[in-house]
């Protein structure tokens, strides 16, 4: 089974706070692929606001993003852009 | 990775530090505990130096009865550069000679007032918990009639909404959306919420709500043993769902096999009631009442009766 994976550094200032996290999750929910976000060995479902917020992702931290499903490439592309966009 | 330092033990067990405080940062790498008995007799071939050492009355009195230089030599052998610490039990007095050796080697020497066996079991429990393998799953953990039910399923299927209704019916929320699970022993899974989202529940359309402030302290739990998995999925016309309950689905989390029920979701199906019943049925089975099997046996006995009348 093919899974798309990417590792990136968060550039959103000052990090994935409540609002950006909600936006991120909304974005993730537009895709049908299963998407996971990982930080420090902890992996959560990127479509769940509580999961994403429980990671408390700060700026300049390295996170892994993983997608599996029909629109996985597009999902990774969009979500990577989202968290690496310098504001 | 989890790191346990000797310092943590001091705080956790209110141990008294009597020597070797330079070594408080030492790391404990195993939950095994050693009672150096053979070592007291000078046999160090298999000395488990990386373990926490525990000295009860027997070990310490033997050591103290030795001539001063031998005692110091043995203590020096015990205090290797990886030994995380030595715990003296029963609040015994420790000769200054031993404290000096511990100070020099930088191996924390601690004292507990309790009996040796008690200290061993409590230390082991604590260390086992700290070293337990952990994972996280996407799901909601609820305590329903004392049964830890892990509700899983795709995003948006209604896990949190079901949990909310269960809370409203008097059950307890443990974790929403993201459950941290640690394995204790070989057959026990304990789930708890990540610190940041403790007591919180996300309901689409409402946002994040705090279950504890809304429903009171009785509506939440900090951790719960997981006994049952309920998987919610959208009803598929062509899929065969369990109609009897004779065969149990299982789900494996780490090394533990849990019973799992797949519940198809369709408008009009009251999920919280179904989950309540699933939890009660689980308890019933554990008490030895298996309705599906009993029914099947009853049915079989009807066949047997028919067979025997035919023979007559």
What's the main sheet of chain B like? 6 strands, mixed
State the assembly state of the protein chains.
heterodimer
Mean pLDDT of chain B: 89
Distance from N terminus to C terminus of chain A (CA atoms, Å) equals: 36 Å
**What strand order characterises the main sheet of chain B?**
11-9-10-17-19-18
Instruction: Kindly state the number of beta strands of chain B.
Output: 19
Spatial separation of the terminal alpha carbons of chain B: 73 Å
Cα gyration radius of chain A (Å): 11 Å
Strand content of chain A: 25-35%
Order of helices and strands of chain B: EHEEEEHHEHEHEEEHEEEEEHEEEEHH
DSSP helix fraction of chain A: 25-40%
Helix vs. strand class of chain B: alpha/beta
Mind telling me the C-alpha Rg of chain B?
28 Å
Broad shape of chain A: globular
Which chains share the greatest interface?
A: A-B, 14 and 16 residues
Task: Give structural notes.
The complex is a heterodimer of chains A (87) and B (312). Chain A contains 3 helices and 4 strands. In chain A, a hairpin with a 2-residue loop joins strand 2 and strand 3 (42-45). By secondary structure, chain A is an alpha+beta fold. Chain B is built from 9 helices and 19 strands. In chain B, strand 14 (200-203) and strand 15 (207-210) form a beta hairpin. Chains A and B meet through strand 3 and helix 2 of A and loops of B.
């Amino acid at each position: 089974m093919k899974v798309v994976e990417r590792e990136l550094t968060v550039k959103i200032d000052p990090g994935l706070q409540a609002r950006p996290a909600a936006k991120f999750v909304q974005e993730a929910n537009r895709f049908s692929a299963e998407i996971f976000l990982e930080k420090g060995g902890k992996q959560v479902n990127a479509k769940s606001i509580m999961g994403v917020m429980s990671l408390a992702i700060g700026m300049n931290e390295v996170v892994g993003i993983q997608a599996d499903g029909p629109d996985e490439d597009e999902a990774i592309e969009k979500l990577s852009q989202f968290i690496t966009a310098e504001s | 990775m989890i790191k346990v330092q000797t310092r943590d033990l001091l705080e956790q067990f209110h141990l008294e530090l009597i020597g070797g405080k330079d070594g408080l940062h030492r790391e404990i790498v195993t939950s095994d505990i050693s009672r150096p008995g053979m070592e007291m007799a000078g046999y160090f071939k298999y000395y488990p130096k990386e373990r926490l050492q525990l000295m009860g009355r027997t070990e310490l009195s033997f050591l103290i009865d030795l001539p001063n230089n031998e005692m110091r030599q043995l203590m020096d052998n015990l205090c290797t550069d990886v030994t995380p610490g030595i715990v003296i039990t029963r609040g015994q007095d420790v000769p200054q000679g031993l404290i000096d050796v511990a100070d020099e080697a930088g191996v924390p020497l601690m004292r507990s007032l309790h009996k040796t066996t008690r200290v061993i079991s409590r230390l082991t429990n604590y260390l086992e918990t700290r070293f337990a393998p952990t994972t996280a799953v996407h799901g909601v953990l609820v305590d329903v009639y004392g049964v830890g039910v892990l509700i899983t399923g795709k995003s948006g299927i209604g896990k949190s909404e079901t949990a909310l209704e269960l809370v409203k019916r008097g059950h307890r929320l443990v974790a929403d959306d993201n459950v941290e699970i640690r394995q204790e022993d070989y057959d026990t899974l304990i789930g708890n919420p990540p610190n940041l989202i403790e007591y919180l529940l996300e309901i689409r359309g409402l946002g994040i709500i705090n279950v504890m402030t809304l429903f009171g302290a009785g509506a939440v739990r900090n951790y719960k043993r997981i006994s049952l998995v309920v998987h919610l999925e959208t009803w598929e016309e062509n899929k065969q769902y369990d109609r009897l309950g004779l065969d149990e689905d299982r789900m494996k989390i780490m090394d533990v096999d849990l019973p799992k029920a797949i519940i198809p979701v369709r408008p009009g199906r009251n999920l919280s009631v179904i989950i309540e019943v699933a939890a009660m049925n689980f308890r019933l089975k554990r008490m030895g009442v298996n309705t599906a099997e009993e029914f099947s046996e009853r049915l079989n006995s009807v066949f047997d009766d028919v067979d025997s009348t035919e023979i007559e």
